[in-house]
Every structure is written in C-alpha cells, then in structure tokens.
Amino acid sequence: MPPDYSLPAMQVVRELIRRKAKHLRLLGVPVLGMCADLLIGAGCVDEVETSAVSLGEAGLAPRFSEAVEKDRLKVKDTTCPAIHTGLQATEKGVPFMPIGGILGSDLLKNRNDWKVGGDPFSGKDILLVKAIQPDIALFHVRWVDDAGNAWVGRRKELATIAHASKQTFVTFEEKKAGDMLEDELLAPGVISSTYISAVAPAQRGAWPLGAPGMYDIDDAHLQLYARAARTQEGFQRYLEDYVFQDASV
User: Fold this and answer.
1) Model pTM?
2) Sheet containing 114-118: which strands, arranged edge to edge?
3) Could you read off the pLDDT of 178-237 as tens digits, one per residue?
4) What are the tens digits of pLDDT across the range 82-109?
5) How many angstroms separate the Cα of 188 from the Cα of each of 55, 112, 167, 198, 199?
6) What is the 3-state secondary structure (H, E, C) of the chain?
7) Predicted confidence (pLDDT) per residue in 128-145, tens digit
8) Rounded Cα–Cα distance for residues 11 and 71 (Å)
9) Which of 10, 90, 145, 182 is 20 to 30 Å apart from 218, CA to CA?
C-alpha cells in the first residue's frame, strides 16, 4: 500500500473492515498512514513491513502505536530505500539487489533476510536486500481507460508496486475514452493493463485523503480521526460513523 500522499484506495480499506478481513500483512511503500491505522485498529492486520506509520501533520498513528505497545502486531522495521530496492529487484527479475547506507545500523540485527556480501569491484562490504514480491498491490487513480490502463502521473512508486506484485487491484475516479498509452502527454504516467488484474470505479475513493487534481486531503477529517482513535472507544465510534455508514459518498 502507498503512503497517504500517494493515492491509497481508502474505499477498499473501508470495505475490508466491513467484511471483517483478518490476518493481513501490509507492506508500506515506503511508509503507511491512515489506511494502515484503520485496518490495524479494526483487527484486520497481523504484520506490517514499513519504514514508518504516521498520520503526518495529524500526529502519530494511535491504533498502530497501541497495537505495538501491547504486542498485538508484528513489525518488520526497514528503510524507504530498502523497500524500493527490494521491489525493484523483483521488477528486474533478480533475487536481490545491493544497497548502500544501512551497514552499521541496528536494523540488521532483526532482518535475517538481509545479507552482507562483498562488492566484487571494491572488495568492501555491501548490504544485499532480498527481492520483495507482494501478493497484491492496491491503490487508487484518477483515470482508467478503455484499454484497462491506469494513469498515476508522477507517482512512479505505484508503477513499481504494480510491476513487482503478483496481482494489482486499482480503483479509479473517472473512465477515460481510448488508450492513454497512445497519448504522448499522458503515456509517461500510465501503468499498462498488462500489470493490472482488476479495476473498479470509486468516486472520491481516496477520501479523506487526496487525489491530485481532483480533491485535496481533508485535513479537518484527518484531525478528527486522530483525536477519535486515541482510545479504542473513540475508534469504534469513528468506525460506526464513517466506515459502517460509508460517509464518503
């Protein structure tokens, strides 16, 4: 799942909670936000792998924080570059990729899937990050076209997720006629339908987060959520008001 600023599929997140999904493992690319906090608070998640979970300017992610403090959630700590490197390894069809800048960090003590190897050119140690292949990539976009392509604009991390994942599910705001890959201006921001498993319309599907060019993050609502989710009781009231009643429509 992408971070809050990069088109998370919030409508799907709410539906997962309504369906009482269980035992999810979330990968943040490279961080997680409200989407993860909601799923964690609702008891849908067993494990997260991410470099951070935060509500940004609204503060800490309260349901995530409590779940970690009470040992109800497994956390695989990582870094932003390590996540991107692991996904790019899968994208390029290789079992691992080297990365600099992490050697000497305490992260290595808890990551048995990372290995230190020798740089064949300099002989120096370098960290080797195992390829990451998510089961499902999930995000929201502004446009899907008649050919099944999805436009993500400059959110290139979404393309990396789609390329690396076994399946990619996309919700969209608007259907665009034709084939965007034939449009010189739009094509650089398009993910080919080759990498997309299924699409579904969802107007305001990223709300209360934003969809660039259509609507901004609802900062007031994010603050409302941050206050409510400080307690389990407040979080449950939030679910009743904004998830089970689907207040986004």
Assistant:
1) 0.94
2) 96-99, 125-130, 114-118
3) 999 999 999 999 999 999 999 999 999 999 999 988 999 999 999 999 999 999 999 999
4) 999 999 999 999 999 999 989 999 999 9
5) 30, 37, 22, 21, 20
6) CCCCCCCCCHHHHHHHHHCCCCCEEEECCCCECHHHHHHHHCCCEEEEEECCEECHHHCECHHHHHHHHCCCCEEEECCHHHHHHHHHHHHHCCCEEEECCCCCCHHHHHCCCEEEEECCCCCCEEEEEECCCCCEEEEEEEEEECCCCEECCCCHHHHHHHHHCCEEEEEEEEEECCCHHHCCCCHHHEECHHHCCEEEECCCCCCCCCECCCECCCHHHHHHHHHHCCCHHHHHHHHHHHCCCCCCC
7) 999 999 999 999 999 999
8) 28
9) 145
Letter for the amino acid at 10?
A: M
What are the tokens at 193? 């339908």
